Amino acid sequence: MKFATKAIHAGQEPDPTTGAIMTPIYQTSTYWQKSPGDNKGYEYSRGTNPTRKALEDCLAALENAKFGLAFSSGMGATDAVMKLLAPGDEVITGNDLYGGSYRIFTKIFTNYGIKFHFLDLSDPEIIRQYTNEKTKLIWIETPTNPTMQIVDIEAIGKIAKEKNLLFAVDNTFASPYLQNPIDLGADIVMHSVTKYIGGHSDVVMGALMLNDEELYKKLWFIYNACGATPGPMDSFLVLRGIKTLHLRMKAHCENGRQVAEFLKTHPKVEKIYWPGFTDHPNHNIAKKQMLDFGGMISIVLKGADLQETFRIASSFKVFSLAESLGGVESLINHPVSMTHGSIPKAEREKAGVVDNLLRLSVGVEDIEDLLEDLKQALSTPTL
Ligand SMILES: *Cc1c(COP(=O)(O)O)cnc(C)c1O
């Protein structure tokens, strides 16, 4: 089946009891058993719930994976992957990560004896220098957040295979419509479903998709034992959101392209990060592994200090100043004070996350209104 058909149908058979076309919201914590242990495959909703199961099968299909697991947040999903590790293990990861990922790695899992190497992965060969017998996992994000670096998934997949390392990709920024890491050699795909997959900024959720059955059993054990699983109402909302994922992504990419082109030559813009430009350092890799370039764009404002950056960030009328991304509505974010506040200044500046950087999540509103809003916000005079 092709993507659009999977988005609408995968995992969703008509309900066996009533024939309902839409998967019902099975708002129940527990299930009747005929005699102890004799049940219909459902015992307790922390571990299994029919609405969530339909969603998990759909999520797996979107990433061309056999198995899907939904979590109550993206961080819950990341946490479960890290719990595959044991004290002494080492992890190779990127140096431009989602702030919350950096935080859970450095503030939680280092306390449990796990060591992280934060590397510039634009040349994947660097991984070899940092790999030893303790290395267990490679965790990457591409495009990276917020500077839209592109990491070569296939090249890293080859190194992971050769060194026998588990390879996980946070695919949140691309969405399964634009990029499928499992097809390129990843073992696990992680999503913050909160973003493009949910798509309407009304649910917080995470997911893991994977092919290996043994690994699935281990992760399901962690999922059920630790309990960061989502409820049926949220599962229903995400199933509903997914039905338009392909339509929304096409619109995000088209609007993203026009916004990027408008900003590239704007006198207030010193630097722009968007992988669709042919002069983006990894444009060719983006072209190779992504279907299109998405609606995430970051800009560095020319000659703006923190105060001026705040002033501009607060003067939008259609874009809303808010954390998060991937919803139908356009958002603007100031990473230094919002999403990336937990990363030390020296660390984030190394990755290009400077005081005058703004990140745009271009929504699917009318492009003329978006361009008009950018024009007025960037031209407001300094007081
Ligand atoms: C938002 C986000 C996360 C965390 O997901 P939550 O659903 O907020 O817990 C992880 N990675 C990336 C790239 C994100 O944008």
From TrEMBL:
Keywords: Lyase, Pyridoxal phosphate
Cofactor: pyridoxal 5'-phosphate
Enzyme Commission number, as recorded: 4.4.1.1, 4.4.1.13
Coiled coil: none
InterPro entries: Cys/Met-Metab_PyrdxlP-dep_enz, PyrdxlP-dep_Trfase, PyrdxlP-dep_Trfase_major, PyrdxlP-dep_Trfase_small
Gene Ontology MF terms: cysteine-S-conjugate beta-lyase activity
Domain of life: Bacteria
Top-level EC class as recorded in UniProt: lyase
Any single Pfam family the record assigns to this protein: Cys_Met_Meta_PP
Record PANTHER family: CYSTATHIONINE GAMMA-LYASE (PTHR11808:SF15), TRANS-SULFURATION ENZYME FAMILY MEMBER (PTHR11808)
UniProt family annotation: Belongs to the trans-sulfuration enzymes family.
NCBIfam families in the record: PRK07811.1
Protein name: Cystathionine gamma-lyase/cystathionine beta-lyase
Source organism (scientific name): Mucilaginibacter pocheonensis
